């Protein structure tokens, strides 16, 4: 008898996408030559949930031409991810976007916690609800905030400490937050760009 593949062995990854500025005309293809599923980006929220099946990289494609613009390997063990998409100069490979894969599963942040992804390029010090927190470059560990996170970010410039950003993020009783820090709009500025993505543990969709 011919051996049949075990459907349970095929990995399934649920993913959402986000970009600092919404991107038009992007989609993904589950299989080479297969149907293209449009991706809709929102200014201040994750996209709807999508699914990728199999061990091949997830392929982002131009929705008009079907040309591949990014191949995204999903690290082993991740089952729910956020794809942070940013345009890049087209290289010899033709890849037009850089994609950062973030583990977005419930193990990363629980209700009442906030996590900071620092892509600002600045060295930052932070306060959360009056207590000092470390902010390294890249993905920082989640920290507990309760229902409301009062965040203050500061940076050093020419030997002095300056305010870089501050705000209060309301998480509510079951919410969790991801704060993404992008570089300042202008070179030499110390004001980071921020995007706050909120969701709830166990929610199927995204706000």
Description:
The chain is mainly β. 0% of the residues lie in helices and 48% in strands. It contains no helices and 17 strands. Strands 9, 12, 13, 16 and 17 form a 5-stranded mixed beta sheet that branches. It has a 4-stranded mixed beta sheet with strand order 4-1-7-8, with no helix packed on it. A 4-stranded antiparallel beta sheet has the order 3-2-5-6, with no helix packed on it. Strand 5 (58-62) and strand 6 form a beta hairpin. The mean pLDDT is 88.
Rounded to the nearest angstrom, the distance between the terminal CA atoms is 49 Å
Let me know the largest β-sheet.
Answer: 5 strands, mixed
Radius of gyration from the CA trace? 19 Å
Query: Runs with pLDDT <50, length 5+?
Result: none
Which structural class should the secondary elements be placed in?
Answer: mainly beta
Strand content: over 45%
Cα shape: globular
In which range does the helix fraction lie?
under 10%
Sum up the structure in keywords.
five-stranded mixed sheet; 17 strands; 207 residues; 48% strand; mainly beta; four-stranded mixed sheet
Draw up the topology in text.
Layout: E1 12-18, E2 26-29, E3 36-38, E4 50-53, E5 58-62, E6 68-72, E7 80-87, E8 97-103, E9 113-118, E10 124-128, E11 131-135, E12 138-139, E13 143-144, E14 148-157, E15 160-170, E16 175-182, E17 193-200
Parallel strand pairs: 1-7, 9-16
Antiparallel strand pairs: 1-4, 2-3, 2-5, 5-6, 7-8, 9-12, 9-13, 10-11, 10-14, 14-15, 16-17
Give a short synopsis of this structure:
With 207 residues, the chain is mainly beta. The protein has strands at 12-18, 26-29, 36-38, 50-53, 58-62, 68-72, 80-87, 97-103, 113-118, 124-128, 131-135, 138-139, 143-144, 148-157, 160-170, 175-182, 193-200.
């Amino acid at each position: 008898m011919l051996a049949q593949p075990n459907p349970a062995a095929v990995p399934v990854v649920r993913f959402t996408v986000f970009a600092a500025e919404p991107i038009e005309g992007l989609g993904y293809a589950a299989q080479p030559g297969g149907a293209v599923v449009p991706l809709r980006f929102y200014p201040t929220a994750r996209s709807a949930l999508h699914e990728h099946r199999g061990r091949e990289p997830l392929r982002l494609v131009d929705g008009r031409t079907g040309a591949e613009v990014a191949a995204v390997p999903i690290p082993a063990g991740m089952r729910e991810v956020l794809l942070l998409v940013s345009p890049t100069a087209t290289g010899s490979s033709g890849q037009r976007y850089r994609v950062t894969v973030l583990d977005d599963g419930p193990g990363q942040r629980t209700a009442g916690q906030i996590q900071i992804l620092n892509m600002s390029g600045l060295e930052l010090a932070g306060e959360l609800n009056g207590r000092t927190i470390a902010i390294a470059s890249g993905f920082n560990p989640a920290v507990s905030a309760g229902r409301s996170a009062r965040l203050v970010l500061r940076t050093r410039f020419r030997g002095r400490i300056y305010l870089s950003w501050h705000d209060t993020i309301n998480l509510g009783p079951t919410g969790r937050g991801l704060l993404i820090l992008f570089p300042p709009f202008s070179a030499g500025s110390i004001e980071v760009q921020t995007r706050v993505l909120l969701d709830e543990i166990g929610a199927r969709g995204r706000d």
